[in-house]
Design goal:
This protein is 22% helix and 14% strand. With 222 residues, it is of the alpha/beta class.
Length: 222
């Protein structure tokens, strides 16, 4: 159900994508998304469930008031500005979105970038798989002209429009209020579940949570 173009109305506090459920498991084990302004919801709609076997603190998992649904900006304010770009997320925050949704993929050199399609072309002047490009190569592409709208200087320069997940988290943290985050990992990916691992490692690093012993070295750079 949509509230406005580019926005999703979330009636209950539940995860939109499977990776959100995975991240919620880490949250129940000590990961604190509030450190970067994010909220994590489980797909069951029960934030009090503890997948790591410990009893949750019920005083911290009370139900959200139901006066209105949460509004999540799908790929940012994607009706107004190019999807998944800095300008789209800056506008979503200005519009007062409760949260944002993003799609992530790994580059050839291990950076988590925001891009929906596995192939370049629909939203840029590039071609070929995202996974076969380095972050530097992607930075040289145009991710805005296809939309046909001017980008205000307040929404970042043209060379700043491609975002890494780390950079999106910086935007959310700077918002000055709690902002929800729903992350969708895009498959098929040549990195397999290494994509999900990279997302978890990044979020845990941002939260100051040590990586569990035995985890392989992540491909995630930023």
């Amino acid at each position: 159900m949509h509230n406005a173009p580019g926005f999703h109305r979330v009636m209950e506090p539940r995860g939109v994508h499977v990776p959100v459920m995975r991240i919620s498991s880490v949250a129940q084990c000590g990961f604190s998304p509030a450190r970067y302004g994010g909220r994590v919801f489980t797909t069951s709609g029960s934030p009090g469930h503890s997948p790591c076997g410990t009893q949750p603190d019920r005083s911290r998992t009370t139900s959200r008031p139901t006066e209105r649904p949460l509004v999540y900006a799908h790929r940012g304010s994607s009706a107004a500005f190019p999807e998944l770009t800095r300008s789209a997320y800056v506008q979503a925050l200005l519009d007062g979105a409760d949260g944002v949704e993003c799609d992530v993929q790994l580059t050839r050199d291990g950076h988590l970038v925001l891009h929906h399609d596995t192939q370049l072309g629909r939203t840029s002047d590039g071609a070929g798989p995202i996974s076969q490009h380095t972050l530097a190569q992607l930075r040289d592409l145009d991710f805005t002209s296809w939309k046909g709208v001017p980008i205000p200087s307040s929404h970042g320069g043209l060379e700043e429009q491609l975002l890494t997940l780390d950079e999106l988290l910086d935007l959310l943290e700077a918002a000055g209020r709690p902002i929800g985050l729903a992350v969708e990992t895009k498959h098929p990916s040549p990195f397999g579940h290494g994509l999900e691992e990279a997302v978890l490692v990044l979020l845990m690093r941002r939260a100051g949570t040590p990586r569990p012993a035995g985890w392989a070295t992540s491909r995630c750079r930023s």
